[in-house]
TrEMBL record:
GO cellular component terms, A-Z: Golgi apparatus; late endosome
Any Pfam family matching the protein: FPL
FPL domain residues: 52-198
Protein's name according to its UniProt entry: FPL domain-containing protein
């Protein structure tokens, strides 16, 4: 560890376990963060330790000592977090930084969405594709989405007005959709959780944004992707009919699982109970999947058309969405 880190580690060790959660120690950590003017290889581990300690203190002390959260807001610590992000381009600090922010968001009970600081973190130009940053970022978005509710929306509108370019649900949704085409299961699951959390808010302003083009194109894109997956699965079926292999069978099962996941997600959207969302999904299913499949069924006289799989999908989708 560098000299500066050693000195700070020594200072940290002077605080007992109880004192770690005291207001004076909390003030000291904040002042250390405020004095940080650059983040590089010499001090990034120290900065991470400070951020971790601040998050732990606020998360653990939020329900025990109201003064800690009051000091957190008074000293604009979220603004300091944004500043630290802006002076650091190394994913070595950005990844754990986002991890601790996710922990903070998940554990805090008080309102912490004022002054657009969370928005600024979401909109920060992270260098995605380098290292392991992407999962930490999408987990942060998921944590934020879990806290968005009708009460939060009302406060945001009352305090800041409605500016779609910086409205938290809009920023959050737009950021999540940038990952909607990713194939990693963890990222796919997070995107679905984020979108469903926002769909369930049941706020008219949010729903208007979600159901208006081009944002509403997301629903048709989902169905287009489902259609492509069905076509891909059809190809697997034909290939296995020509030549069966264990590898081909495993690939077919994987493709089928992906399709089932997509159908579950579409049904979850409809189950939210918002008519504008249900109509968008239903119209996309009918126009881009059901009608094309039925069209194929009407052309079964062509020798190269498989009617078994289209018939199966029509029956499966109908029965699935008809359930309770």
């Amino acid at each position: 560890m560098k000299t500066g880190c050693t000195a700070t580690a020594l200072w940290f060790s002077l605080w007992g376990s109880d004192d770690r959660f005291s207001v004076p120690h909390f003030r000291y950590l904040i002042s250390e963060l405020q004095e940080t003017k650059i983040v590089d290889n010499h001090n990034w581990d120290l900065v991470v330790d400070i951020v971790q300690s601040i998050v732990e203190i606020v998360s653990c002390g939020d329900s025990q000592d109201p003064q800690l959260f009051e000091r957190f807001m008074e000293y604009q610590v979220l603004a300091e977090f944004v500043r630290v992000l802006r002076i650091c381009t190394d994913t070595g600090i950005q990844a754990p930084f986002l991890q601790y922010l996710s922990i903070f968001i998940q554990n805090i009970e008080n309102y912490c969405f004022s002054n657009d600081h969370i928005n600024n973190i979401i909109a920060h130009p992270f260098n995605f594709g380098c290292g392991d940053l992407d999962p930490y970022y999408i987990s942060f978005l998921r944590a934020v989405s879990s806290k968005v509710n009708i009460g939060i929306i009302s406060i945001l509108v009352k305090v800041h007005g409605v500016r779609y370019c910086s409205f938290l649900p809009v920023t959050l949704y737009s950021a999540a959709l940038k990952f909607s085409q990713r194939s990693e299961r963890m990222i796919q699951a997070a995107v679905r959780a984020i979108t469903l959390n926002l769909y369930k808010v049941s706020d008219d302003l949010v729903l208007q944004f979600l159901s208006t083009p081009p944002v509403s194109d997301y629903f048709s894109n989902l169905v287009w992707r489902l259609k492509e997956q069905c076509s891909h699965l059809d190809g697997h079926v034909h290939a296995l009919k020509e030549r069966f292999t264990d590898h081909g069978w495993k690939e077919l099962l994987l493709e089928a699982d992906k399709i089932v996941d997509e159908i579950y997600y579409l049904k979850d959207i409809i189950s939210v109970g918002e008519s504008c969302l249900s109509e968008a999904v239903a119209l996309s299913l009918v126009n881009f999947l059901i009608f094309p499949i039925l069209g194929r069924l009407l052309k079964t006289q062509q020798s190269d058309v498989s009617c078994l799989l289209p018939n199966f999908f029509c029956s499966y989708i109908y029965s699935y969405f008809s359930q309770g």
